[in-house]
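Recall the central idea of this unit: under ordinary conditions, the amino acid sequence of a chain determines the structure it adopts. In this exercise we apply that idea directly, starting from the sequence alone.
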Amino acid sequence: MTATPREIREGCGVRLVDYLVAELTRAGVTHLFGVGGANIEDLYDAVHRSSTIRGVVAKHEFSAATMADGYARATRHLGVVAATSGGGAMNLVPGLAEAYASRVPVLALVGQPPTGQEGRGAFQDSSGKAGSFDAMEVFTPVSRLCARVDDADAFAELLPRAVAAAQTDPKGPAVLLLPKDVQQAQIEVPVRGVTPPPLVPTPLVPAATAAAASTGGLEAEARDAVSAALRGASRVLVIAGEGVAAADARAELAELARRLGAWVAVTPDAKDVFDNRDPRFAGVAGVMGHANVEDCLRRADFCVLVGTRLPVLARGGLDQALAATPVVCIDPEPPFVAGIALGGNLRDTLRAVARQLPSRPLPCPEHAGPLPTPPPAPVAQAGDGTVSYAEAVAAVDAALPQDAHVFVDAGNAGASAVHLLPAPRHGRFVVAVGMGGMGYTFGAGIGAALATGQRTYVLAGDGAFFMHGMEVHTAIEYAAPVTFVIFNNNAHGMCAIREELFQGGVRSNDLFARTDIAAGVAAAFPALGATWAGDAAQLCQALLRSNARSGPAFISLDCDAREIPPFLPFLSFTESTQRTESTESEESSDERGPVHVG
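Accordingly, the structure predicted from this sequence is:
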């Protein structure tokens, strides 16, 4: 006889998995994502018996991990994923690597063979014994904490440690390896107030803050010096990143910009952290961004990084201007560029800096704003059955609800969306730039939609769809309000363009025969009502119809694989080629040359 969460009482004996589900419920977890299997079935049994957590079964463990990731990004709460041993466990790794690189709090519960079979030829043995590989060595590099639960009695202490590790800066995954017999073991429910602490403990003091306290408040002195310098600056560029969303610091960011009279740019994965229609908005920084950001940076007395370390994708094309501008970074971790680092809690630091600035709002200096970069070459003509990226993104913009979430996948279509699509005012705009894995959005969009109930747009290319697009079935099974928009150029388009520009010609293996994705999906899932849009108007109408649905929708459109997206490595290459072929005077030293990413 197993206990349901309502029957769990302090001091009583229960299965470890029932205790685990009760603790996750107490922490506010509403969904558990994963794929079942023999060595994780006891956890799924406990979830089934519970009426408090919804178990969501994905088609693939990578997508289950990205569902937990999307859930966490949309809610700022812990995402939870579960998988069985062997191949199921290994399929989690790329999804957890994205969460690790992007600082997303995820708890992975990974089944293992019974402890008595370790090193004895067990199926899917990953104990590291008797020549088997060691799951600990696999998961440790992509986690903030990885532990094998060999002692069921120690689980009540280990679980809150794992959750705290996932939720403490720098955030990321925590992994608990759970042998089947340990999951089934009876443990005594701890008495509250004695041991263990709850799963949502008092926030831990960030390492940077603790270090400052131990050195006599050097952090506060640096903050005061930065505030004094900013008071004397007439032109400031703020570049805001994903950390602003993770810390729920949008209001603090806006107040800092208001008091500084600053321009505000955003990193590619953080378009939603500042109103894209605000007069202060300078555009997107980096390789998918706007030339205006570089112009503002060159004119600025200071550059303030908020919630970003400014990785390559966010600073491509800006290195020369950054080297000539004083940089301040407000983030729990130090920046990737030279500058003054103010660590600690992001919201608290923003408030402390803003308090020392004049309270009256200052207008920002004039700037061009996020003007789209013109395409370097003609695109497909209207009427040939293809839709240009600019036209397609404009159609999405016209239909997008302002409380929707947007998840943008890798590739040419993704670069166009980052460059051209304004973020919704009251929803997330997510790009997985940590690992940049194709197909991330299908699971992540479902996780966000199920967590919040808000319409979620997934914008992806055909390459990403063919990797993980069958998660459409998961969206149907759970009635997730997700609109899948597939930009089909019948190619690995970004690879094909790289080959043409950098390697002397396109290889045929990255160009595919035409596939009617909408017809295929419609045949497989008749209730979904999948649609093909032949032009931008049809796309907009299909999107508006999807907004009125209660569940998922699917729309595909055809694009041209030859269309060069607004991606700086491509644009800078074509510009440099044109300059080489030109007979005009040599470029000046402040003009940028080719930018290479990847």
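The CA atoms of residues 530 and 554 lie 5 Å apart.
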